[in-house]
Design goal:
- There is one protein chain.
- The protein is mainly α.
- Helices cover 78% and strands 0% of the residues.
- α2 runs antiparallel to α3, α2 packs across α8 (139-159) and α7 packs antiparallel against α8.
- The longest helix has 25 residues, at 43-67.
- It starts with a helix and ends with a helix.
- The model has no long low-confidence stretch (mean pLDDT 93).
């Protein structure tokens, strides 16, 4: 393959793994990083944690695209993705995926021993969770925990151990991310039933799925608030919690069981606003 051909595929590769959506997971990783020392980290630690998070997410997205390529080819919503359309081949994704996995392990090694030991377990979870939709309606919740690894992993990367505070933060992220995944897959109920795939919406129906998602968002905000009280964080942190709660309420004015047409706007804007609000609030509470 010529260099020109490889270079021409790079934009498609980044589009295939939705590289720009790293903004959803990175802020909560940074929150875990900041709260672990309740201070601003060194530039070296910041860079290694950023690279570790981006490479881990890359592995997870590639696994998702490769494992689900045959399902995507049958799904009208996903049939235009790069693998079903032949824009990229499986090899085009697997090679960067292997490199990203190796790079993630290297980043963990540069951080500390505990991060290095646990890194393969994190990769294993990220690689295998896409399979769960084939046998359990809890797949949406398991997706949430894939994103929830980030803050606890960043905490470990900073201090070399895990406490209950980052577990509570990860729980909030799992609830928030799982909630959106529940809503997102309400678009696919008909297709999932046809293909014998599983989700909360498929198992319990779309109206109840929305109620479950709302409850999870509420619990996520409660967890975030409880974390602030537990760690005696400043007023800016709680302002971030309030803003995030407001954005989540607004999300449900955009999408409801009878109108899913604004799903893209809900995902791209609201989730980014939630995570960035929490990060800015955390930074503000530490700089005092």
């Amino acid at each position: 393959m010529s260099n020109k051909s490889i270079l021409s595929k790079i934009p498609n590769f980044f589009d295939a793994i939705k590289f720009q959506e790293s903004i959803f997971a990175l802020p909560f990783a940074y929150i875990g990083m900041l709260l672990s020392i309740q201070n601003i980290p060194s530039l070296e630690k910041f860079i290694w944690i950023t690279l570790a998070m981006v490479s881990a997410r890359t592995v997870g997205m590639i696994a998702n695209r490769v494992i689900d390529r045959h399902i995507d080819s049958k799904n009208p919503r996903a049939a235009q993705r790069h693998l079903p359309q032949g824009i990229l081949s499986v090899t085009d994704l697997l090679i960067p995926g292997v490199l990203a996995a190796i790079f993630f392990i290297a980043c963990a090694y540069m951080l500390n021993t505990m991060a290095f030991i646990l890194a393969p377990l994190a990769l294993l979870y990220l690689i295998t969770y896409p399979l769960t939709k084939r046998f359990t309606w809890a797949a949406n919740l398991l997706l949430g925990w894939a994103l929830a690894i980030a803050p606890s992993a960043a905490w470990i990367g900073m201090v070399g151990n895990l406490d209950w505070q980052p577990v509570l933060l990860s729980t909030a992220v799992a609830l928030w991310a799982g909630s959106f995944d529940i809503i997102y897959h309400t678009q696919d109920v008909v297709f999932q039933k046809k293909e014998n795939l599983h989700s909360i919406a498929t198992r319990f129906g779309i109206p109840l799925a929305f109620k479950i998602a709302r409850s999870m968002d509420l619990m996520a905000v409660i967890c975030l608030g409880a974390l602030g009280v537990w760690m005696e964080l400043g007023i800016f942190y709680f302002c971030g919690c309030g803003l995030s709660g407001g954005f989540l309420i607004y999300k449900y004015s955009l999408v409801n069981p009878n109108d899913l047409s604004k799903m893209g706007m809900s995902f791209m804007r609201i989730n980014a606003l939630v995570s960035c609000s929490m990060l800015l609030g955390t930074i503000g509470s530490l700089i005092r």
